[in-house]
Specification:
The complex is a heterodimer of chains A (77) and B (235). Chain A has 77 residues and is an all-alpha fold. Chain A is built from 4 helices and no strands. Chain A has one domain. Helix content of chain A is 87%, strand content 0%. The longest helix of chain A has 38 residues. Chain A is rod-shaped and about 70 Å long. Chain B has 235 residues and is an all-alpha fold. Chain B has a domain of 160 residues. Chain B is 76% helix and 0% strand. Chain B has 7 helices and no strands. In chain B, helix 1 packs antiparallel against helix 7. Classes of the chains: A mainly alpha (77), B mainly alpha (235). The interface between A and B is large, with 36 and 43 residues.
Chain lengths: 77, 235
């Protein structure tokens, strides 16, 4: 039964190949997108952390996004 | 109303949506794959090779829908000059390109057992290949033109010209004699696909749409952070 399922009546290579290519491509795009997002978050948080404490306070007060990225970044480290 | 469109609010929503999609995605994927690979019946003519349809057709739909949205949003960008629109189109383009390429590759794999050839310069396949080239052109303008305004202008022009190709793809199977079969699913009129195959197909489409939404949100979030990082000195 399992062999029948895997062979797909002789079309196994085509069917499994198509699904494999689709999911590998989706996985790779997800990995690349996730990695780029984390890199930008890390760089942004790093840049805020490098500011003087007075400037950092102004940035956090003026930008919700900056404070969110900073808090999520500090959670991950 | 416009408070909702504020980048900070959008950013907040993005985080929530990403968490929600992540929580349901794998369960839905498992259900869709079970239907596509196990529960749906083989075709009376094509046998089990018809299962390739469950990745090929949603990929083609997503490729077409993504480019149509990019083109329509580019027209809106020309008229209203809203910068946010360009962030959206930039985030959609890589997803559309990947699914267009997937439609071409899985179509080619399906073509071998069905038509006896991996590739034919058939109207549908060729117009899909042209769509992929439009996507590459659109993405390249943002990669290789450093002046953002210029890049936005050129990419919008490419998207608007590329819009002409969308009805050509859709009606190519009716206008020319092609190896590719005509549409089995019609929005108006009766579809020629049985519900036992239509249901898994729509389920796979829904799962892949969720995946697209996830990638889009992550890319959009990256774009927002990139802009905020650039403007950090101004704050």
């Amino acid at each position: 039964m399992i062999q029948n399922f895997l062979s797909m009546n002789g079309y196994g290579l085509f069917v499994w190949g198509s699904f494999a290519i689709t999911f590998i491509a989706c996985g790779l795009l997800y990995y690349k997108t996730f990695k780029t997002l984390k890199k930008y978050e890390r760089d942004f948080a790093k840049e805020i952390n490098e500011l003087s404490s007075k400037r950092k306070k102004i940035v956090i007060e003026n930008s919700k996004i900056a404070s969110q990225v900073l808090s999520s970044f500090s959670k991950t480290i | 109303m416009f408070k909702i469109l504020n980048l900070s609010n959008i950013f907040n929503w993005i985080e929530k949506l990403i968490a929600f999609i992540n929580s349901i995605f794998f369960i839905l994927l498992l259900v869709a794959l079970s239907f596509a690979l196990i529960f749906s019946p083989p075709d009376y003519l094509q046998g089990d090779s018809v299962r390739i349809m469950y990745v090929h057709v949603p990929s083609a739909w997503i490729g077409l829908a993504s480019f149509s949205s990019i083109a329509i949003l580019s027209i809106a960008h020309f008229i209203f000059k809203i910068k946010n629109i360009k962030l959206i189109t930039k985030s959609i383009a890589p997803i559309g390109l990947m699914f267009t390429c997937l439609a071409l590759v899985t179509g080619s794999i399906w073509g071998q057992p069905t038509w006896g050839t991996w590739w034919a310069w058939d109207a549908r396949i060729t117009s899909m290949l042209i769509l992929a080239l439009f996507y590459i052109g659109f993405i390249s303008t943002h990669k290789f033109i450093s002046d953002e305004n210029k890049a936005n202008k050129f990419s919008s022009i490419i998207a608007i010209i590329g819009l002409i190709n969308i009805p050509i793809i859709k009606y190519s199977v009716d206008w020319w004699n092609t190896l590719h079969q005509p549409a089995s699913i019609k929005l108006t009129g009766e579809s020629s696909i049985h519900s036992s195959m239509l249901m898994p197909l729509l389920l796979m489409f829904f799962v892949l749409i969720l995946y697209c939404a996830l990638i889009f949100l992550m890319k959009y979030k990256t774009e927002i952070i990139r802009i905020k990082k650039k403007n950090l000195k101004r704050l």
